[in-house]
Design brief:
It contains 1 helix and 4 strands; from the N terminus they run E-E-E-E-H. It has 87 residues and is mainly β. Strands 1, 2, 3 and 4 form a 4-stranded antiparallel sheet that branches. It is elongated and about 45 Å long. It starts with 5 loop residues before the first strand and ends in a 5-residue tail after the last helix.
């Protein structure tokens, strides 16, 4: 694997979800839809090698309305910029 070039891709994505039982689902901006709706948002870190994407890490964005006692509210920008660790 010498001299293999790779890139890292950090992406925030959202999916519309119905119901109220899934943790982290709330009314929030869903980029895939381009509007506010009930859904779940995640920040994903992927490696791209030879045009093949390899998932590295995924973090669920928990909106303020779904926080439990002791949870800390984090905005999406700091999640994508500071909470991923190299392994």
């Amino acid at each position: 694997m010498e001299n293999v070039q790779s890139s890292a891709c950090i992406d925030a994505t959202g999916d519309k979800k119905a119901g109220k039982t899934t943790d982290s689902v709330a009314k929030q901006y869903i980029g895939n839809l381009g509007k506010t709706d009930r859904g779940i948002v995640s920040v994903n870190a992927d490696a791209v090698v030879d045009n093949i994407t390899y998932p590295l890490q995924l973090k669920i964005f928990k909106p303020r309305s779904r926080l439990q006692p002791g949870d800390v509210c984090k905005r999406r920008a700091p999640i994508s910029g500071g909470n991923f660790t190299s392994t």
